[in-house]
Amino acid sequence: MTLDLALRTTEILLALAFLQQSAEHIATARRDRLWFIARMICCLPLLAGLQTTAALGALAAISLFQLHRFQGPYNGGSDRMSLLILWCLLAARIAPDLFWQEVIFGYLAFQLTLSYFISGKVKLLNPEWRSGRALQDVFALSAYPVSESLRALAGRPRLLWVMSWLVIGFEVVFPLTLLNSSSLIAALVIGASFHLANACLFGLNRFLWIWIAAYPSLIWFQGRLLGADL
Q1: CB atoms within 10 A of CB 21
Q2: pLDDT tens, position by position, 110-161
Q3: CB 151, CB 139: distance < 8 Å
């Protein structure tokens, strides 16, 4: 994947993710509705590939207002990733030359890889994750909209132990997938499936779209490391 294609694909995916996020907020909160409508409008030229740098600049300005309005990212990790992708895209588009474009976009890929690895490391050091108890609590006690049939999984500790270690193992070894193009594609499919499962089971739909929006940077980055376009 070339740098130009990776940047353009990321812009499209980010615009789609922002449209989904903004639509959710408009439906539930009237106070800030105009700002999120403006955000949706700015996503349209980004989708169409028209004046993309200006559109990214406008979205960045809106993001500064949102940071002030909500005293930080109002939805945790998914909004932090949203800001990271947005500002990396803007910085890459206004970068003075190809070298700085690659540095900036490579930084996004590095942060994406780190997000999986650190998450896995934290789980690995947590005895409740190693024992499967953390997932038991998620299904039994979580405020997320888990169905009653899924809550029954809390009574299957062996299954949840296996699931816990599968998640830990995937996240910890994720950086190693950069060594091979096939392993990276497999890892991204697994990662997207993992986020999809979280969206379906727990309503964490924002993580699905925004993490997928960062995937092109990693595909490009690996091709750059290996000296070939995927």
Answers
A1: 22
A2: 999 999 999 999 999 999 999 988 888 877 776 665 566 677 777 788 888 9
A3: yes
Q: Would you give the distance in Å from CA 5 to the centre of its chain?
A: 19
Angle at which helix 157-173 crosses helix 181-202, to 10 degrees, equals 140
* Strand residues in 100-187 grouped as ranges (E): none
Q: Name the residue type at position 173.
A: V
Neighbouring residues of 192: CB distance < 8 A, sequence distance ≥ 6: 208, 211, 212, 215
- What would the pLDDT profile of 170-214 be if each residue is shown by its tens digit? 999 999 999 989 999 999 999 999 889 888 777 777 788 899 999
Which structure tokens are listed for 80? 């932090």
DSSP string, 48-115: HTSSHHHHHHHHHHHHHHHHHHTTS-TTTHHHHHHHHHHHHHHHHHH-SSHHHHHHHHHHHHHHHHHH
Whole-prediction pTM? 0.88
In a 3-state reduction of DSSP, which class is residue 147? coil
Of the chain, the end-to-end C-alpha distance in Å amounts to 5
Q: Tell me the HSE value of 51 on the side-chain side, using a 13 A CA sphere.
A: 10
Q: Tokens at residue 79, please? A: 């909004």
